[in-house]
Design a protein that fits this description.
The complex is a heterodimer of chains A (336) and B (503).
Chain A (H helix, E strand, L loop, with lengths): L3 H8 L10 E6 L9 E7 L2 H15 E8 L13 E9 L10 H16 L3 E5 L4 E6 L3 H8 L8 E6 L15 E3 L2 E7 L4 H9 L11 H14 L4 H8 L4 H5 L3 H14 L8 E7 L2 E6 L8 E5 L2 E5 L2 H7 L4 E4 L7 E4 L3
Antiparallel strand pairs in A: 1-6, 1-7, 2-4, 2-5, 3-4, 8-9, 9-10, 10-11, 11-15, 12-13, 12-14
Helix pairs in contact in A: 1-10, 5-6, 7-9
Chain B lengths: L9 E5 L9 H5 L5 E4 L2 E4 L9 H5 L5 E5 L12 H13 L4 E2 L14 E3 L20 E3 L8 E3 L5 E3 L7 E3 L3 E5 L7 H14 L3 E2 L16 E5 L8 H6 L2 E5 L11 E2 L6 H7 L7 E2 L10 H14 L6 E6 L4 H9 L5 E5 L8 E2 H6 L4 H14 L7 E5 L5 H9 L4 E4 L1 H5 L23 H4 L4 H25 L15 E3 L4 H7 L2 E2 L3
Helix pairs in contact in B: 4-14, 8-10, 11-14
The chains are: A alpha+beta (336), B alpha/beta (503).
Chain lengths: 336, 503
Amino acid sequence: MDGSKIREALASMDERGSGEGSGYVAYGIYPDYKEYYALHVFFDNIREHKVPLEDLLEKWGMIIHDEQIKTYEQPGLRKVHTPWRYFFRPNPSMMPKSTSPEEDIITSLVMKVNSERNGALIFSSGKNLGVFKAAGWPEDVANFYRIQDYKGYLWLAHNRYPTNTAGWWGGAHPFNLLNWSVVHNGEITSYGTNRRYIESFGYKCTMHTDTEVVAYLIDLLVRKHGLSEEMAVRAFAPPFWDEIDRMQKKDQELNRALRLAYGPALMNGPFAICVAKENLLCGFTDRIKLRPLVAAESGDRLFISSEEAAIRRIDDDVTNIRMPGAGEPVIGRLYA
Amino acid sequence: MSIGSTPLKYRVKIDTERCMQCKRCIENCSYGVFREEGDGIQIQSRNCVACHRCLAFCPRDAIEIEEKPGDYRSHPVWTREAREAIFNQAKTGKIVLAGMGNALPYPIIFDRLLLDACQVTNPSIDPLREPMELRTYIGKKPSSLDLRHLENGDVQLCTKLSPNLQIETPVMIGHMSYGAISLNAQTALVKAASRIGTFMGTGEGGLHESLYPYQDHMIVQVASGRFGVDINYLERGAAIEIKIGQGAKPGIGGHLPGDKVCADISCTRMIPEGSDAISPAPHHDIYSIEDLKQLVRGLKEATEWKKPVFVKIAAVHNSAAIAAGIARSGADAVVVDGFRGGSGATPRVFRDHVGIPVEAAVASVDAKLRQQGIRNEVSIIASGGIRESADVAKIICLGADAVYIGTSALIAMGCRVCGTCYRGTCAWGIATQKPELVARLDPEVNAVQVENLIHGWTLELAELMGAAGINSIESLRGNRDRLRGYMLDEGLMNVLDVKTVGA
């Protein structure tokens, strides 16, 4: 499915934003380079900042192909960065101690480049997927990248009303790390706890916004600790102790263990979050559902949105429309 | 008599028009301030310690206690306290003993930290109408879970959890030994702890038989003197605490004067009646961190690995590194006791000059453990100068899992912080072993007061969390983003990892 309907759906919720940040991620858009990591980079200035980044990438692997991401001037959107894409193959022998060297190289490169803030920001780093975002209204950002020219099998889109940080390009959603992408509506009141927790595992929060910790937490719990997405969501928005006390002994032990081990990963405050990876779409809210979330189906397609109206913009024949309970994940899987 | 009399600390006056000669003041004062003479009451103001027992029991509010009615010539350096300490030592040639906690006017960090609340961008949560979770588990947590996803969709937990203490509020009652305080006081405290769903420490004075019914809410302590320690004692406790140090006297051991060691205390502590119970400064089987590890393992082995083992240290300059060592020793919690921590008896010089504030110590311990990726290995219990629920919230934001309270709980039982605990004549029946004074403290009545206090704090904590948009205490823990420093210097703000107000 191409991005035109996604743009329309998102634009229908313009009043949820302020025109200062919007973005899209599409999975399945780089079939010709699908075995390489597609790095999307914002350069402040390609003359000064591009060479150092490329030097760094060449140290850790090989750039298979690179090009400027095509953009189209919009009256309402000032092009303050130059978006670039690299298809990159990391050299696993560079991280001999790791059990997942390629992914760890990518993660550490992203953390290094983004925390150094040296005129380059890697905002997308997965395989066969790409994030497109900027500071602007959803339509303008979509037209800036001509989002309709990309055909993906899985999309996330977001319209931002910034509070914590001014609308800058890096601060727009989705946030991405490896194949994980996250969009988020809300404000995580436990951010200080979550950030310090995730940083003790070597992640660096560089975007000045609470959403990026979600991407890193998912990466830690699912990729590094081997939890299922359901269990990871359970850790982020766990049942209350009262509920756990009433469970059967086995469930009680499991849920207590989740809360004990992952208490610092519990996310508090109002949020609705959608997380995607190459074979998964997962939406969930905080434990008392302080933000809206609605899910619907159409054939084998799953939609998750803040508003039903947006879903209907894409497909008016959806069925099984429902509003998941607080903390209850809605998970769609892709079986190839 | 070269020094002579010094200015009075307090002047006690009785308003004779109000006084009805009931003589309750004479009965209640255990320091000999009042005596009957003729048909009047004579007052010896010099004996007064301002414990306010007489005030509290005067039915006519006829007694007035004036602090420092006469003073020394004022001088910014040679304060009254400095001069009196010199007089005291000139007379005795001894170490000056003191009670309670640090009495010098150091700035209080808690009072320069402000909590956050939600406005507009996220809603505050109403604890009257929404669940609010303060339940806390004290002990080692796994750093990750091994979960197997079975074919039938079930999830199987393959990680074995270490024993943890479950508390329904992050407030526990710290270690005050039978000896330092009376059995009635201990009974009141542990009754309160058991009703609230929390724990209290035995101190290093052993566990009296009459407290066995409450043993599931008691943490037994193993200190350098090993008083009262045997396998029966260890097995009775819900957890075991190794006391290395104490905020009121870092670097030295406990001290119980012999005249407090009555028959009952002699049995509980397993020492001869009337003998001083002076604990060695170090544990003589712990000269290094690897020795601590052996003791931790030894205690666990002795109790079949069923109980968490805590290690308590005084907050000192290098607390963070010490705590990192403790976290690797197999201990389940580290107790950090700040320099305001109280004591029944401590050398004044230690009480007032050694150690650091608990706020800075906890912040640096939490940061160091996170840096080393071992924060889940231990819980952090903060103690020493926790005066109210806001202090609890702030220290949790700085990284503590829970707090121990001592002085606050004693105040709930009537203690007026007169600081004369070491004399053993506490008029409130708290820090004394004199039967007639101990009998003044009704364990049941005082249990209710302590319970009320902790319950009140718990309600306030729930409100503070709700206002910050947080409904589970683990999201407050280490959440320094929800604190701001007010008039703190930059160096200290870096240590606390908090921003200034307005930032």
